[in-house]
Structures are given as C-alpha cells and as structure tokens.
Amino acid sequence: xxxxxxxxxxxxxGELLVYYITAVYIGLSIGPFLxxxxxxxxxxxxxxxxxxxxxITTILLILWKLKYxxxxxxxxxxxxxxxxxxxxxxxxxxxGLSVIPxxxxxxxxxxxxxxxxxxxxxxxxxxxxxxxIILLIKxxx
Length: 141
Known about the structure:
By secondary structure, the protein is mostly helical. About 65% of the residues lie in helices and about 0% in strands. It contains five helices and no strands.
C-alpha cells in the first residue's frame, strides 16, 4: 500500500532524481532513433501504436498499485457528462485546426469554442466538476 506523502527511507531524494533524469534522457536519446526506424519500416502511423501498450500497462499498474489512493474522493462522483462535453469540444477544435484553410475547419473551431463555453457553464453548476471553473474565476492572480 502506498501512503501519501510517499517516503523512501532507504534511498535519498538525490538518488531518486538520478534515476528519473536518467530515464528521461534515455527516452530522449532512443526515442528519435526508434521513431525513425519504425517510420521507415512500418510507416509514420506506426509511431502512434507505441502508446497502446504503454497506456494499458499504466492502467494495469494504477489498478494494481494505487488501490488506496482513491480514498480521499469517496464522496465525489465522476462527472461523465462534463468529460464528454470537454472531449467533444477539444476534438472539434483539434479537427478544425487540422483542416483550417477549409471553411469546415473554421466551423469546427467555432463549434469547439462554443462547446468549451457550454462546458464551463455546466461545470459551474455541479458539485463535483472535472475542472472547478470557480477557482479560475475567483483567483485574480
């Protein structure tokens, strides 16, 4: 069971930073090479499939190792409606940006912006929002 804050009694923070930085730089060094090899052998779309096993592994590790980390959110409900509104609005903006010279692109961007406004208005009115808009409104800094 993991406890918060995480403590590492046998390892110093400096040593943990070394592991973290090493992993980052190994990824930065190997990533472009592997991406080039995959693109050459399998086509450019193949680089997106690398994320599938990483995502599945991450989900399995979360379900396996972080069983007790969700305890502080017991009274909150997952905002499925807000998540769907946000996802569709973001999708519309991204698809619109990919075809921007076309009129369809401008229409998708406009639909995405309207979707974001609907999302913000919806999030203000519910008790357990995905994004607490009131924090953004009341925080003037």
